[in-house]
Write a structure and sequence with these properties.
Distance between the termini: 28 Å
Number of helices: 10
Number of domains: 1
Order of helices and strands: EEEEHHEEEHEHEHEHHHEEHHE
Strand content: 15-25%
Largest sheet: 8 strands, parallel
Helix content: 25-40%
Structural class: alpha/beta
Amino acid sequence: MHAGLFNRGGIPGEKPVGTDMTHGWKKSRILLENGEEVVGIAPVIVSASRATDIPAFFAPWFVDRLNAGYVRWVNPFNPGQVQFVSFSDTRMVVFWSKNPRPLLPYLPDIDARGIGYYFQFTLNDYEQEGLEPDVPKLSQRVETFMRLSDLIGPKRVVWRYDPLILTRSVTVDVLLDRIACLAGMLRGYTEKLVFSFADIDRYRKVRNNPAMQRIDAREFTEEEMTGFAKGLFSLNREWGLTLASCAEEIKFEGIVHNRCIDDLLMFELFSEDADLGSFFGYRPGLHGQPPSWTYIRDRGQRKACGCIVSKDIGMYDTCDHHCSYCYATNRVRTSTHL
């Protein structure tokens, strides 16, 4: 664990001090272990995390921080800006991971707190290319996927093949073949497949990575995107998954725009949570009409992103998967496969 990157101490005493309606969360006073009182925020929905793999590398830390009641977060773009995040109002955690196995023993602790959660589980097959040099073997990741699904149900384990990358040897057809192989193994263990196309030119860390240059990784053309989507839609007649694209502006037949932080899924899974419903202004349907609530989009994400508001508690440059295409870390290395 990367000591010092996260504040590990303190038992909180929180008091509401107002509401930040821009983000949809309350402000809160938090008592630190040294006796200092600080003003933080108390998000209803926590993202753990777009910035690092908390389930893989920081599972004990995460549960420790739940027990403490708060976390200290540092702005990756302005390290002098520190924010304290209270878990006092947290009703939902969305986990992002390539290897959530270390977190599995701690799930009963989270369940005991009455906090809802689901997983965005990225399961790619780039073993031959070595683009994810320090993730577990593919067979082990598939086994972890199945085990997690058995524990919490297939609806709460969302499969991500993300990002989609083209190289000299990895063509659209190769990607579809690899996805089809995994889909066959994951049948019954998930209900949704999310994908996105690599943004190599957008991120300097990715563009300048020697491993990406060595395999001549490149972005999709619009024609290739459309061809991939058509092929995936055709294959999905056998699987029956919900197909979704992540933060892609282009619309494909049979494929929805995803909300990774997803209010629709939250209400489907945890409709009995009155506090979650209150946050969204949940209104039950009358006279046979469906229920309704307020869609609170996360305005801090890209324009095409459908995610609702959440607070991400991760830290850049702390993930030890060393994926060559990662925009959130400089901790990459050239795979021995290359």
